[in-house]
Specification:
alpha/beta, Rossmann fold, 2 domains, six-stranded mixed beta sheet, four-stranded antiparallel beta sheet, 9 helices, 14 strands, 37% helix, 24% strand
Length: 329
């Protein structure tokens, strides 16, 4: 074989090998279009129905019936992140918070995996997902902090953790007054040059960027979020408030309502601290009555336009509740 032919053969082998290595190193991006819904069903008196099957449910997206691909009964376990607001506004009632959070643990399934996150000047994972209740109780007991309130960064952090929980059912329970320090600063800047009479209608709570990031990520994972709203964020409990204060606190509370509505959860408003334990237990009971259904949308366009979801059950006297819809991306 001539020297020229040998060199040419070697060059071909090198180029082929390089192409193969490049292919192996390229990330494989798989974009799932599956929509996951956690669904609660109650009778006319509000009592949960827990014995339904896949055949009892019908799902519609923008009015078009969808085929249910996967169904999980209400007994299937959850991965739950408990988020505790340890910012300065909660210093006066930490013991009540901790006792109430422990009641939540007593009410959920022993098979549910629970992670505890606290937030103040920083966001801290107290414990990763576990079924060991002693570990979780200790995390709640040790929770502490002071300072700022990064509510939505804490939710984003929790979604990072839940993303590693695979196909398990997922939920977040967040105790907060809803007043995110960074978001409130944005609201303050929005109102700076606004005349007083225009203040009540100027802030658009739904347009906040980090809120929409949280909503988009919860859509993708099928995470249900239950905010427990502390009385320290109630705009109607401000002492001698200014129109700007009312506008900012009202926007903060409206964002918590948006989070609950978009993810299929409920906003539970704590009017008195003694209500907190009961509301935690109520959220736990709500979770234990949820079914999970999945479907692949017949509309496969990624146009970013909101898709409305509705779901019905075979018994017309029963009421199904789930998230309102999602934005395909």
């Amino acid at each position: 074989m001539s020297l020229r032919l040998i060199l040419f053969s070697c060059l071909v082998l090198i180029l082929f090998s390089s192409a193969s290595v490049a292919q192996d190193d390229d990330p494989i991006r798989v974009e799932s279009s599956i929509v996951r819904l956690n669904v609660g069903v109650v009778d006319q008196r509000g009592r949960p129905i827990k014995d339904l099957t896949r055949a009892d449910f019908t799902v519609f997206e923008d009015g078009v019936r969808q085929e249910i691909g996967k169904f999980e009964p209400s007994t299937a376990p959850f991965s739950v992140v408990m988020i505790l607001d340890m910012s300065g506004s909660t210093l006066g009632f930490r013991q009540v918070i901790k006792q109430s959070a422990m009641r939540f643990l007593d009410a959920i399934s022993t098979q549910d995996r629970v992670a505890v996150v606290e937030f103040y000047d920083k966001i801290r994972l107290r414990n990763d997902f576990t079924t060991d209740r002693a570990t979780v109780f200790n995390s709640i007991h040790q929770a502490n902090g002071a300072g700022k309130s990064p509510v939505y960064k804490a939710l984003d952090f929790a979604l990072d953790k839940l993303a590693k929980e695979g196909t398990r059912r997922k939920a977040i329970v967040v105790l907060t007054d809803g007043r995110d320090t960074e978001v409130e600063a944005n609201d303050t800047r929005t109102l700076e040059a606004i005349r007083d009479e225009l203040v009540p209608t100027t802030i658009r709570p739904e347009s906040e960027q980090i809120l929409n990031r949280v909503l988009g990520r919860s859509d993708a994972q099928g995470v249900t979020i239950y905010p427990l709203a502390l009385p320290s964020g109630d705009p109607y409990k401000l002492a001698d408030p200014t129109p700007r204060q009312i506008a900012k606190w009202s926007a903060a509370r409206a964002r918590l309502q948006i989070v609950a509505d978009r993810t299929g959860g409920t906003l539970n408003t704590i009017n008195a601290l003694e209500d907190m334990g009961r509301l935690y237990a109520q959220v736990a009971a709500d979770m234990r009555a949820l079914y999970t259904v999945e479907y692949t949308p017949t509309n496969d366009r990624r146009d970013g336009k909101f898709r409305k979801i509705s779901i019905t059950v075979s018994n017309s006297e029963q009421i199904a509740r789930t998230r309102q819809g999602y934005f395909p991306r």
